[in-house]
Amino acid sequence: MTIASAPPTDPDGTWLPQARRVPSPNHGPRPSGVTLDLIVVHAISLPPGEYGGPYIEQLFTNTLDCDAHPYFQTLRGLQVSAHFLIRRDGELIQFVACERRAWHAGQSRWRARPNCNDYAIGIELEGLDGDVFEPAQYQALAALCQTLRQRYPTLAAVVGHEHIAPGRKRDPGPGFDWVRLQALTGWPADCFADVIGPTTGPHTRR
Ligand SMILES: [Zn+2]
Hints:
Layout: E1 20-21, E2 27-29, E3 38-44, H1 55-60, E4 84-86, E5 92-94, E6 100-102, E7 109-110, E8 113-114, E9 120-126, H2 135-151, E10 157-160, H3 161-164, H4 178-185
Parallel strand pairs: 1-5, 3-9, 3-10, 4-9
Antiparallel strand pairs: 2-6, 4-5, 7-8
Helix pairs in contact: 2-4
């Protein structure tokens, strides 16, 4: 088992003290013996392109009123979650303990390994594929990545949902600056090899 064990004071798994805790019921056990080695970055806004409402938290806690907006009809019955959400102002919210398997990636594949939810930590940015992201979000994301990698040294790479579910998902999209995230983390190019190609440009390597 390469996942770091939770400290004894936190029997439910790892919840970061700097995050506001909004527990989601949408999670399960990770497969035993799995190596926690991937960070998946997403973008979400509800309704799409509108920021600041309570709807993402409601979606991840199965409390969204699907009659509140026409778009929400498409979300009826959906049970999804991510470990973390970073809002436009940089606020960090945690929905699922890091040791648990959150439901963010769906059908997905990374470096020939299917089912990324098994071995990934999912981080949602409040945003929209095609839109840009706020400086406060980059700062919060980089800080979160640092914290996670200190706790889970097996974390080896950062990718977007679009890279592990190509053709099906487009988030975080072209408005997300991977070079900026790499610079803020100071992590080696290896960690961003799937998203920043040395000669071929972003988003082309697999
Ligand atoms: Zn996504």
